[in-house]
């Protein structure tokens, strides 16, 4: 299992204020234009290559942000289930307590932009059983299905679906996103598309359910501001001023992962990755 310290920084797009970290060490950081990751054509080509590598060598493809982050997200997401059950009031920093598996195992979970689907396998190992992964790239879905079948997780459901124009007609208790909002933000119309993303996710998650976002492109505070901005746009600025805010809240910040290693960059200390949880009000 790769530790964060061992990870090669595959892409470092400073012009987009992005650290892209993966476990691939054969790419030159300057090789890829940052905005390419916002285009479906980039992902389609990338997963075709990953599929060929899987078929020839059994490779899984990228684990975005590394295996340690993936495992942390899976364990941490499970720990949040007490909040869904209303056992611990939101906002209280006490979510590491034991979770009764009978409570959460059948919670419907959706991983948007699932890629190779390995995060869902990690969630299955934590005891989740109702797992769906979507990606707009057919190659990703094929790769994820192949890997799940090979690894004994064929009950995970994988579908081709664009989260910005979703065809899904059910709601989920938990939505996870590892690197997908980052990729969407790198599209030339990234700002607008990120707002569409929040609208879509707000419709896909059940009231009281949670959204767990892992990003290397935005800090926790930037994600909080973005959610506030989304709320203001949705309800109109005047209704979301002080005092009226609670009534028009869509997502409530719950907590973020506090255990990621920090680095110094440009004299500022920060994490390369953040994972933030919001509860749908
Ligand atoms: C950085 S990769 C992360 C993949 C996976 N979540 C992981 O952690 O390994 C971003 C993923 O988002 C997918 N994606 C980007 N925009 C999407 C959209 N609008 N709808 C669905 N999937 C999307 C890409 O195809 C790609 O698989």
TrEMBL record:
Compartment(s): Cytoplasm
Stretch forming the signal peptide: 1-22
GO biological process: methylation
Documented EC number(s): 2.1.1.-
Residues spanning the membrane: none
Pfam family, one: Methyltransf_31
Family label: Belongs to the class I-like SAM-binding methyltransferase superfamily. EFM4 family.
Protein name: Protein-lysine N-methyltransferase LOC100274302
Species, as recorded: Zea mays (Maize)
